[in-house]
Each structure stands twice: as C-alpha cells, then as structure tokens.
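Write out structure tokens for FAD-dependent tricarballylate dehydrogenase TcuA.
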Amino acid sequence: MKTEAFDTDVLIIGGGNAALCAALMAREAGSRVLLLESAPRAWRGGNSSHTRNLRCMHDAPQDVLVEAYPEEEYWQDLLKVTGGITNEHLARMVIRASSTCRSWMRKHGVHFQPPLSGALHVARTNAFFMGGGKALVNAYFRSAEKLGVEIRYESPVDRLDIENGQFQAAWSKGQRITAKSCVLAAGGFESNREWLREAWGQNERGEWPADNFIIRGTAFNKGVLLKHMLEEHQADGLGDPTQAHMVAIDARAPLYDGGICTRIDCVSLGVVVNREAQRFYDEGEDFWPKRYAIWGRLVAQQPGQIAYSIIDSKAIGRFMPPVFPGIKADTLPELAEKLGLDGERFMQTLNAYNGSCKVGQFDHTALDDCHTEHLAPAKTHWARPIDTGPFYGYALRPGITFTYLGLKVDDTAAVRFGDQPSPNLFVAGEMMAGNVLGKGYTAGVGMSIGTAFGRIAGRNAARAAAGQPAVRGAVKDEA
C-alpha cells in the first residue's frame, strides 16, 4: 500500500501572534511545521507588530503586574464592552489562559516591562512587551527558526482543498501544498476596502463610510481565506461584518501601518464635536482602556466620518502624546477657524458645555465626581471647563484595527462545518476572535485571544497530524 507523501505535517497560514504561537506549539510537539506569511519579511507579523501588551488575569501581584485582576473582574470588563455578545465559556477559557502563558512566552524570547507613565490605568491589568509587538514578533520568529520551523514570506494563500470537512491542501502562488493538518491564522478583512464598503454600505447622507476608514495595521489582511471559507466551503461563521476594533485616530495618519502612535488619547479630557460642531457622545463614560475602541465606530457614524477632539492646556501632560501635534490656538474662536468649523455653532457648543460643568475633585485615574448637569449628551466624569489657553484640536478619523466577522469554534479551535468540527483544520487569532468579541474592545484582549487560541490550535494540529483526537480547553502552564 502506497503511503501519501505530505509536504509537511502542520501547515500554518499567517504570520502574526496567533500563527506564531500555533507554529511553536506544533513544533514543540514534534511536528514538521511550515508557516506561510503573505507579507514580505520586512512587514511580517501582521497587526501583532503594532501591539503593546497582553491583558492578564492574576489573583496576586505577578512580576510586572501589580495588585490583583481576578477572573470575575476580567469577565465583567469583557461583558460590559461586548454588551453580552460573547461566548462565556470561550471567554473564560481565554481569561484563565492569560494568567499562566507568560512563562511559555518568555521561553520563546518575549520580555516584559512595567507600563510607561503614559499608559493610564493598566499597570494592574496588562503586561507590556519590552520593545512592543515588533519585538514579540521578532522573538517568536527567531525561536521558530531555531526550532526548525520552515518559513516562507510573500506566500499568500488564496484557496484550500477541503473534503468532507477535512483539510487536504492549500494553494499559494499556483503551488499546491499538502499537510496532515492546518491552522488558519491569516487575519480579518480590515485592509480589504471593497469588503468594508460592502459591509458598511451607504448611509442616509449618501456617503460610503468605509471610504474614510484608515487601517491602523497591516495592508496584508485582505480576508481572502476568510471569505473563501465562508462562501466556498460553507464553514460555520459568526459575527457582524461591521463590528471591529475601531479607534479614533489622527486624520493625518497614513492609510496603513500608522499603529498606536496615531491614536488620540485625550478624548476623555475634553470634548469631541462633529463637523457641525456638535457633541454626540459622553466623553467621560469610563476609563480610556475600556472605552477607547468605541470611538472609531462613533466617528464612523458622524457626517463625513470626521470629528474633532478639543482640549485646553489643563489636559497637557495627562495623556500619551500622539505622533502629530495638535492644532494650537490662543482662543476658542481661533481654534474653530483653524479646524474649519462654524465658529458660532462651535462657541454655542463649548459655552453650553463649560456652563454645565460641576467640578468636584478632578482625578483622571478614578471615576471622579466632575460631571455636567442639564446637558445632552452628558459628560459623566472628568468634566472641567475648557477655558485655559492655549487650546488644541485634533481631527479624528475611524481607525480600523481588525474585524470581528469570523469562523465559529469551540474550545478545540476546530473549524466547524454544519456544526461538525473538522478533524484537522483549526483556526486562531482575528479569524475567530468574534467568538469572544461580538463588539467593543478592552485593551490587550486581542493578544490574549490570539495567544490562547494560537496555542490550542497548534497543539491540536500536531495531534491531528499524529492521528490523535483534539484535546478540549486551553494549554496548561505553570502559574
């Protein structure tokens, strides 16, 4: 009987955090591993290159993490930002896995550091990567190469051969690559403008909102495999195609790969107005790491998909400064003119806000008692009059990080067809993050999901390659 010759045991499609975690796990289990990264080597790592930290559960102080951040608090934070659109079982599995994975990450060259002073409120909840996401990606690639993982750059995959839910082969640049098992970790569709346009459609003003989106990360996440899986292979999917990790970023940011330095973090310290010089949401709703990712979507819903963050000199030094300086003016009417806003309406909005502020004990590190009264929308915390020149304004655009439409999974990370798990096809990272993130975001949780499910997928892909059944649940590590 002839034995089929496979090109590799485990094929990993993608080159970001989830893909690398899967590749390392599969290689540690003894599998031959081939990783296909669509980007050139210089742009490897996908959106993971732009990350900074990992949200971590812990019941007591742990190295760079202070105090405690127990499972229930983490879950409640996630529940609040998602509005309940999350799979609790999978979410709690990710949360628990986040408490012990750092030792494994360190083994593969990732180092951690305490948060910088500009990273407000996260010393207790988030472990920061020394050197940021680029250093993490480079460490994982070095470790993978050292362990013997074969890596091919500029190798996009455009289709898969699947029979009866079982992976057979992948096609890259006309080459058919066979493997005993496969992990899909090729990202969402955030850099596919056509798909974004299709998802968001045309609004009541006749605008196509997606035309004004800026992509915060990689230009290589086109969603080709995701669309192929959902449409050609009828894999089980979930999620709203308009839901995504979207942040309000500087309108001057580059179309791709601007990263975190283009984010505008002073929203909670002032007011935000649209192009009609009207406020449209509570800028002081909650701490910035929990609410910053709602602002991209809010701006996307405004006329022209643009808004303006307005602060005064009292805010300077209290937020992480972005890469571009704000527009500066000595008076508010001058600032309105420089921003191209109607001066009369702008001053009506600012005067109404300033007059409604009830200033108590201002504390930007707590949900303080500085709020507005008889104003809609209210500002519920950190409300202080904008009255101390010079004044600053930042034009904002929706910055899309990653999309939430994805493939449905269980705790084995298996791709499902007609609610039946594939025996040898698994998924991790952005392609399945919507199981945990139906909407909203909280800082660092994307890396928690990618790390947990990347490791699960890699472990189970190695087991499938060895003819063993998938194991349920997260990878166990020593705390």
